[in-house]
Amino acid sequence: MTTQEEQTRAGLRFPAGFAWGAATSAYQIEGAVTEDARGTSIWDTFTKTPGRVVNGHHADVAIDHYHRYREDVGIMAELGLSAYRFSVSWPRVQPSGSGKINPKGLDFYKRLTDELRSHAIDPWLTLYHWDLPQELEDKGGWPNRDTAYRFAEYAAAVHEALKDHVHTFSTVNEPWCAAFLGYASGEHAPGRREPQNAIRGAHHLNLAHGLAVQAMDARRVGGCVNLYAVTPATDSAEDLDAARRIDGLQNRFFLDALLTGRYPEDVLSDLPVEIDFIEPGDMKTISAPIDVLLVNYYSRFTVSGAPGGKASAAAAPTDTASPWVGSEHVSFVNGGRPVTAMGWEIDESGLVEILTRVARDYPPIPMVVSENGAAFDDHLDDGRVHDRERQAYVEAHLGACKEAIEAGVPLEGYFAWSLMDNFEWAWGYGKRFGLVHVDFETQERLLKDSALWYSEIIRQNRRHEPTDS
Ligand code: FCB
Question: Catalytic residues (predicted)?
């Protein structure tokens, strides 16, 4: 028995059928932004606006996945992945965000999903990973209720075209980021700093999720949230209140809405806005039954209500306002843990905490970890990337998944973020999250040590599974 086998047996042995995945998103990898009649997205506009992205980087070419998808699926097959989570670019499929569908855009995702299935890799399709068609932003973006209805229309069109190709559909990736980084802090596209509109946007993103679930009537559909473990810096009343607030806006605002059809009262009363945008029936729509909850997890926040700390967990690379609408006074303090290249504290116990909490506090719902991973400063060394820190990060978090499963959490899969190095939003190409190294000049792909290790864990786990078909 090799060391790897011992390791798998000892620690990282998962139930048969566990989804072994990796994740990406359209704007971060595809490139080809003007090809085949694709429309303009808010990220195309945002990246071309000076001062928004480090070094003025944009994703016009990104890692050229639009042209290299076959090679990339080949890499997934080499890794032994059983599932791949990607997103559809809304402006590629429906260039103006309403009306006419662009068949060439849909064709790309048909080719991609065919390729995946020919390698027995289950396609997990995300409908929205932040690239709103610019024309919809021009009409008000997510703070405009109509955008939610446009999203449901788009979702129905994608579902109709791809329902026989896709394993699981999911709606909105990380609505917290889309609303609060897009419309309050301005760190993400469209870069607005309008706290009250961010809240409206958050509600409309939730509504868009529910309307899409209903419109697709899909065999398997999920919603996606990014959850953080949140700890008060001390047990003072003001720190406990800070933790309640940040946990409320980051986690409960979305979990409660999607899974119980209510917004938490305490969070609503923290918000500096008249709650006049929730229409009758909205909460029932938002909590339309789903088959799986996709949980993205990266880190833990330690927060304080005392003045003088940092305004966010990791300073944004650009000039931004606070995303914490109504709780701008809360500060984020150093929890004393090692950090990744993003400055995010590494804490796998937070993953156990949030998974067991969802299982305990909400109606039963199968879950997957739909994103988890870390940026580090990688170095190419004689054709290898010895990214031991990333491997250790993934190993620790897989251990956390195992622990959660043993505690009774219905966890059905894990998707590493990311399959490949790519365009990391406001940070441009400066932060590498990939299991696979990409040379951004030549587009050459190279498996990092973490990828080789991950594939070995997958191989050991899948060895005893019935052959995929
Ligand atoms: C998540 C995003 C993903 C990636 C990772 C690092 O918030 O969903 O696109 O940027 O963070």
Answer: 371
Atom number of ligand 1 nearest to Cα 431: 6
CB 69 less than 6 A from any atom of ligand 1: no
Long-range pairs, 264-271, Cβ under 8 A, ≥24: 270/245, 270/326, 270/327, 271/199, 271/325, 271/326
Q: Is the CB of 372 under 6 A from ligand 1?
A: no
What would you report as the CA-atom Rg of the chain, rounded to the nearest whole angstrom? 21
Phi, psi for residue 307 in degrees, rounded to 5: -70, 160
**Residue 137 tokens, joined:** 């932003």
d(CA 150, CA 459): 42
Residues with a known catalytic role = 371
The beta-strand segments (E) located in 340-392 are 367-371, 380-381, 384-385
Segment (H or E) for 232: strand 221-232
Closest ligand 1 atom number to CA of residue 25: 9
Helix (H) or strand (E) holding 221: strand 221-232
**Other Cβ atoms within 10 Å of 42 Cβ, number:** 24
Instruction: Summarize pLDDT for 375-423 with one digit per residue, the tens.
Output: 999 999 999 999 999 999 999 999 999 999 999 999 999 999 999 999 9
CA–CA dist 232, 260 (Å, integer): 26
Contacts of 252 (CB under 8 A, 6+ apart): 264, 267
Q: Which residue, chain included where needed, has tokens 């970890």?
A: 369
Which structure tokens are listed for 2?
């090799």
Would you say 212 and 152 are in contact if contact means Cβ atoms under 8 Å apart? yes
- What pTM did the predictor assign? 0.97
> Among 342, 451, 436, 372, which residue's Cα sits nearest to residue 29?
436
* 226 pocket-lining for ligand 1 (C-beta < 6 Å): yes
Residue 469 has pLDDT above 50, yes or no: no
Assess whether pLDDT exceeds 90 at residue 10.
no
Q: Which pLDDT does position 370 carry in this prediction?
A: 99
Question: Once rounded to an integer, what is the mean pLDDT over residues 125-145?
Answer: 98
| 232: confidence class by pLDDT, cuts 50, 70, 90 | very high
Cα gap 29→66, rounded to integer Å: 8
Q: Which of 99, 37, 14, 143 is nearest to 405 (CA)?
A: 14
**For residues 300 and 269, is the Cβ–Cβ distance under 8 A?**
no
Q: Which of 296, 397, 419 to mutate to test the pocket of ligand 1 (most atoms within 8 A of CB)?
A: 296
